[in-house]
Amino acid sequence: MRQRVFNGGNRAIRWLFYALFLLTVYFALTSPNIILGDNGILGTSTTMVTTTFIFVAVILIIGLWAYRRWYQFYRMIFIQHQWVTAPLCLGLAVVWQGVLVACMHPAIGFDVNAIHQALTQPKSTELVGYFSSNPNNLPILLVQHWLVTIFHTSSWLFMDMVTTILVDLSVGFNLATVALWDRHRVPTAMYIHAVWLALFPMIIVPYTDAWVLPFVSLYLLCYVALTQTTWAWWAKLPVAIIFGGAAVGAYFMKPSAIVALIAIVLVEGVFMFKRPLNWRRWASNACLFVVAALTFGGGYVAGNTALNHQTFIQINTNRAIPAIHFMSMGVSGDGGYNAKDALKMAELPTKKARADYSKRKLQERLRKMGVFGYLAFLYQKQSNNTADGTFAWVKEGHFIRGNTQPAKTGFAGKLRSFFYLYGTNLCDFRYLAQVWWIIWLLLIALGGRQMSKLAQVLRLTIFGGMMFLLLFEGGRSRYLIQFLPAFLLLATLCANDAIALFKHLFGWVNRPVD
């Protein structure tokens, strides 16, 4: 009976995951980002950069397929000497980040701009109103204010540097997680993370999407350290405390970032039914998780107390937007931000009035759609939420403030042409990022044989994140960023199985390597 419960729960996680994930693979493969030449949907066009990339890629693939020496050379560089090559690739990606931030640190719009302005204008009536309605952004404001008081600067360059450090810290935690799980997979993880960093310009957007990443990566690392190592209990005790602290930090930075924590609890519950169960080890881990839970609870109380007693910006907590507002927005338009709803939240005077209005609009929209209409809407929303491998770069309202027409001369101008809204190479960036997103997704999709506990936690995290975005405000893939540690780690775990399946499908299984 116990084994049947375990097998059923394990299969259910896998089925639920693939039900949504395979849709994402399809949507990524059919994204307008992958269109070559003139792109009527996006209003831009690829250039010789993309043409050259495709030409080189095709030549390399043919060479690896047809010429034994090419294949041997590839194996020597990227496999036999992977402990040299992989760190080198990752190091180059980090250097590239520094170049990107140095050449491109513009003022950013939407919520990011409100946070940045509040650092120097905390008494602005408009900003007080914003944070009263959106207290979820108060923690990052206070953290940035704390950094400003230490380093005496609030420049965009400084905040972008901090964002870069936090993203790289997340990478470090992810690599440590892989090392604890299986050190032989670390070079693979380095390759995957290096490509991601090279195509992740969100480091110039100092917002919760990127700032929450190290917290998520850290509590996933602590989870693996608690459950997959043979350390003594006293060595695991501080890890449990850090686990709880990282989880509560993720919650305050971006509440939906604790989806992985929920996944951990559910998967641990399923694996309790696996036979044979080491009750002594299970009891020891249970005690450590209690310590982590107590740390989380204590951190939650302390964090709320600090927010309620902060004096940097005076806000009216009664103006906070109710959660049901984001569910109501999530079924309007493309499933994303609704300016009309947001304006109504500012007009209505009480919490009850705002909640009642949102509930009424939610019910109206669902009734109007009907069951099949709602399912069709969710199908399209899943595409809106997950298809774009650039993570909605420059698709937010006033994403980059000021002049978005980059200079046509100089290195910085050429670089900005790949990332600014009116840059001549923006479509090239979108194409390259989309190709990588497709490869990344295929590594996960083709690695279904990986059924370890960690892989199941990561699958359930991705499924939970996608479900959250389907039910609440979504409409663009920027909201996926908070869940990227799960994507990166799962791609690493699945890479060997995915590549083996790919070789089998295309006849590379018996390819000579000597």
Automatic annotation (TrEMBL):
<feature type="transmembrane region" description="Helical">
    <location>
        <begin position="88"/>
        <end position="108"/>
    </location>
</feature>
<feature type="transmembrane region" description="Helical">
    <location>
        <begin position="233"/>
        <end position="251"/>
    </location>
</feature>
<feature type="transmembrane region" description="Helical">
    <location>
        <begin position="479"/>
        <end position="502"/>
    </location>
</feature>
<dbReference type="InterPro" id="IPR021200">
    <property type="entry name" value="CHIM_prot"/>
</dbReference>
<feature type="transmembrane region" description="Helical">
    <location>
        <begin position="282"/>
        <end position="302"/>
    </location>
</feature>
<keyword id="KW-0472">Membrane</keyword>
<keyword id="KW-0812">Transmembrane</keyword>
<feature type="transmembrane region" description="Helical">
    <location>
        <begin position="257"/>
        <end position="273"/>
    </location>
</feature>
<keyword id="KW-1133">Transmembrane helix</keyword>
<feature type="transmembrane region" description="Helical">
    <location>
        <begin position="429"/>
        <end position="447"/>
    </location>
</feature>
<feature type="transmembrane region" description="Helical">
    <location>
        <begin position="454"/>
        <end position="473"/>
    </location>
</feature>
<feature type="transmembrane region" description="Helical">
    <location>
        <begin position="12"/>
        <end position="29"/>
    </location>
</feature>
<feature type="transmembrane region" description="Helical">
    <location>
        <begin position="41"/>
        <end position="67"/>
    </location>
</feature>
<protein>
    <submittedName>
        <fullName>Integral membrane protein</fullName>
    </submittedName>
</protein>
<feature type="transmembrane region" description="Helical">
    <location>
        <begin position="156"/>
        <end position="181"/>
    </location>
</feature>
